[in-house]
Specification:
By secondary structure, this protein is α/β, with parallel strands linked by helices. The protein has helices at 3-11, 19-27, 30-44, 88-101, 117-132, 146-154, 168-174, 180-193, 209-220, 250-263, 280-288, 308-318; strands spanning 49-59, 105-110, 136-140, 159-161, 196-198, 201-203, 228-233, 268-271, 293-295, 321-322. α2 (19-27) crosses α9 (209-220), α3 packs across α10 (250-263) and α9 packs parallel to α10. Bound molecules: S-adenosylmethionine, 6-(5-methyl-2-OXO-imidazolidin-4-yl)-hexanoic acid (DTB) and iron/sulfur cluster.
């Protein structure tokens, strides 16, 4: 590919990517790939602005599902203490703390296969309380029915997170208790209800480059790109089946971020779980590759995240700043 056609490709908004094209991006010389990604990034965003979201586990552990990466599955012995749905006052205290530390979005996660209708009533109260603090809201609760999705929309929810996790081909190596199609169906419901979609995956689970390419292809060829695309590096947790998986080459992780940026130029690409195991230099490369969102706060859902003071210092060293909210025009 000539340098010229590479640039043309990088700024176009497309929904008809071919696997061969995505694999060709992964195979570019690293500098060429980062140049394309940075070009796409600058065409759509302030290059030094990073959106920050904080996470809270509002219902922890004892989950019926068998996701091979997850310490919250009841099937694995991960030393995690299960906790029932949190009282709203505790959620609001955590949300206020996240806001005071600089987050613009608060993401509440529950270890459910799917919520019960009575759970949705309580989650809607949480959403309304968090919005009243002046934060954007995101929840991740598992699969949803139509009625539940509409209740979340009417409750004022801004984003729903539901990840595809990996390619359809590799999926059954990781999860057997719900299908890829189940996930696509939930994502369609969320999109149809008019809630912003947050959808990405996990890399470093032993998948191949083709699986990473197919995951991104699936996201990029949706009729509308997810507004947020979290790219998680597997956090290996003792007791889970994926503990001991060979670590992914950090530069391949950066490539994954860059390809996500090129395929979905106006989406927020989030450098998500796994930052605790990344060097500052690797994270800097991820920002150069087009990542413009992070999970911020000392904890993800159940595992550790970099300390806020460390992130503040990293932002200062890189000249990054956190902006308000939102995403470029999709
Ligand atoms: N139970 C709901 C579900 O699975 O849809 C919501 C919570 S679940 C913990 C949200 C997402 O966290 C998963 O889809 C997965 O992508 C991510 N995740 C969970 N454990 C992880 C780990 N060990 N490393 C990286 N990402 C992880
Ligand atoms: C996402 O893509 N990653 C977040 C959020 N969405 C819900 C969760 C990461 C969880 C990492 C393992 C843990 O802390 O339990
Ligand atoms: Fe349960 Fe979600 Fe963890 Fe899967 S990822 S085991 S559904 S909490």
């Amino acid at each position: 590919m000539s340098a010229c056609s590479a640039i043309t490709l990088s700024v176009a908004m497309r929904h008809d990517w071919q696997l061969s094209e995505v694999l060709a991006l992964f195979s570019l010389p690293f500098n060429d790939l980062l140049f394309q990604a940075q070009t796409a990034h600058r065409a759509n965003f302030d290059p030094n602005e990073v959106q920050i979201s904080s996470l809270l586990s509002i219902k922890t552990g004892a989950c019926s599902e068998d996701c091979g990466y997850c310490p919250q599955s009841a099937r694995y012995d991960s030393d995690l203490k299960p906790e029932a749905l949190m009282p709203i006052a505790e959620v609001l205290t955590a949300a206020q703390r996240a806001k005071d530390q600089g987050a613009s979005r608060f993401c509440m996660g529950a270890a459910w296969r799917q919520p019960k209708d009575k759970d949705i009533v309580r989650v809607v109260e949480m959403i309304q309380g968090v919005k009243a603090l002046g934060l954007e809201t995101c929840v991740t609760l598992g699969m949803l029915t139509d009625t539940q999705t509409l209740a979340l929309k009417e409750g004022g929810l801004d984003y729903y997170n539901h990840n595809l996790d990996t390619s359809e081909d590799y999926y059954s190596e990781v999860i057997t208790t719900r299908t890829y199609q189940d996930r696509l169906d939930t994502l369609d419901r969320v999109r149809d209800a008019g809630i912003n979609v947050c959808c990405g995956g996990i890399v470093g689970m032993g998948e191949g480059q083709q699986d990473r390419a197919k995951l991104l292809l699936q996201l990029a060829n949706m009729p509308k790109h997810p507004e947020s695309v979290p790219i998680n590096m597997l956090v290996q947790v003792e007791g889970t089946p994926l503990m001991g998986t060979e670590a992914l080459d950090p530069l391949e992780f950066v490539r994954t971020i860059a390809v996500a940026r090129i395929l979905m130029p106006s989406s927020r690409v989030r450098l998500s779980a796994g930052r605790n195991a990344m060097t500052d230099e690797m994270q800097a490369l991820c920002f150069l590759a087009g990542a413009n969102s992070i999970f911020y706060g000392d904890k993800l859902l159940t595992t550790d995240n970099p300390m806020t003071v460390h992130d503040q210092s990293l932002f200062k060293r890189l000249g990054l700043y956190s902006g308000g909210s939102s995403y470029a025009n999709a």
